[in-house]
Specification:
Length: 347
């Protein structure tokens, strides 16, 4: 039997495949595929069918792609996603109340399963580490979830509520428009307001600062051009309506470092809000996941004084006994797969 965890996002579909034989679990695959729903939602049934193995399987689904603006409502998005998957195998869906429900029930109550991916890793972690702070810095957003006395204790359940409590920060390691992070940047002896155009994204900043490699720049570029440092410099220069005939490399690096500093501060604002709400002190252990775990999550939390920090893949090896090198990049999908193998999780 194969157990498959799916985290179906608006930009990336993440897949974790485990083989289960008795009490033995083996990780077969962990992957993240760029699939922009706003462009290709109609082809998702064919895409997901081609990506999943033919063997007997149980599928666990969590999602955020229902928010894509190709759908007129979240309900329409949930219906499209679940109908694409449930024809392939028995499908269970994680609700934002941390319960697995069958696909038919999820279709009746779509808002109960919309944007529920944030709860899967804390639900897994809470079975082993009863008091901790989970931070997942993904390509697009950052999730901050406190775990208290063995339970995920977020004050918000849906995206709107989580935004209001600082538990969802709309900034990520790859896809965030730089104009949503800064309103101005330093330029030589001046401070210049930025253009509110879709000229450059955080992947450009993190590539030029050597936080990511070219092959880790997995989304589309704003201008449809390349992902070299020369390409990235041209895009960042346009943030102040310039080009590389007007700016030099030092100017671009200065701007990139400023954006990076402000992005860390964005994440810290959410962290401080959550930490104060839950009265978590600097001795609270922290578990980090996501594309930006090392260069955003780690920096943000350490600057606040936290030192007991564990990365999600290390948590998986230490507590679950599985070697899963890419688990951090697909933490909700991996957590879904593991949870479905655990006694008492599925009623």
């Amino acid at each position: 039997m194969l157990i498959i965890g799916l985290d179906i996002g608006g930009a990336y579909t993440k897949i974790a495949v485990l083989r289960v034989e008795g009490k033995k679990r083996e990780v077969l695959e962990i992957s993240s595929d760029y699939f922009p729903f706003w462009k290709f939602s109609d082809t998702f049934p064919q895409f997901i069918r081609a990506r999943l193995p033919e063997a007997e399987k149980l599928i666990g689904v969590t999602m955020t792609a229902e928010l894509a603006d190709c759908f007129s409502s979240k309900g329409e998005g949930v219906e499209h996603i679940l109908n694409s998957v449930r024809s392939l195998a028995k499908t269970l869906v994680l609700s934002n109340s941390a319960e697995f429900i069958n696909a038919e029930e999820a279709l009746r109550y779509p808002l109960e399963v919309a944007a529920s991916n944030w709860i899967a890793p804390p639900l897994l972690i809470s079975r082993y580490v009863p008091n901790t702070l989970f931070i997942d810095v993904g390509s697009t957003t950052t999730d901050i979830v406190p775990i208290v006395d063995g339970k995920p204790l977020a004050l918000g359940r849906n995206d709107l509520e989580r935004l209001s409590h600082g538990e969802l920060v709309y900034t990520g390691a790859l896809r965030t428009n730089l104009a949503t992070i800064v309103q101005s940047v330093p330029f030589r002896n001046n401070v210049i307001p930025v253009s509110s155009e879709y000229f450059s994204i955080t992947a450009d900043v993190h590539l030029i600062l050597d936080h990511i490699r070219e092959d880790e720049y997995s989304c589309e570029t704003p201008d449809g051009r390349g992902k070299t440092k020369e390409d990235v410099s041209r895009r960042i220069a346009r943030l102040i309506c310039g080009d590389m005939d007007m700016l030099d490399g030092a100017d671009v690096m200065c701007m990139a470092n400023h954006v990076y500093k402000k992005q860390v501060e964005q994440i810290q604002a959410g962290l401080i809000h959550v930490i104060e709400q839950q009265h978590m002190d600097i001795n609270t252990p922290v578990i980090l996941a996501g594309t930006g775990a090392h260069f955003l999550g780690n920096v943000a939390i350490r600057q606040l004084g936290y030192i007991d920090i564990l990365y999600f893949e290390d948590f998986v090896e230490r507590y679950i006994g599985l070697s899963a090198e890419k688990a951090s990049l697909s933490a909700p999908a991996f957590s879904m797969a593991v949870l479905l193998t655990m006694e008492g999780m599925v009623k």
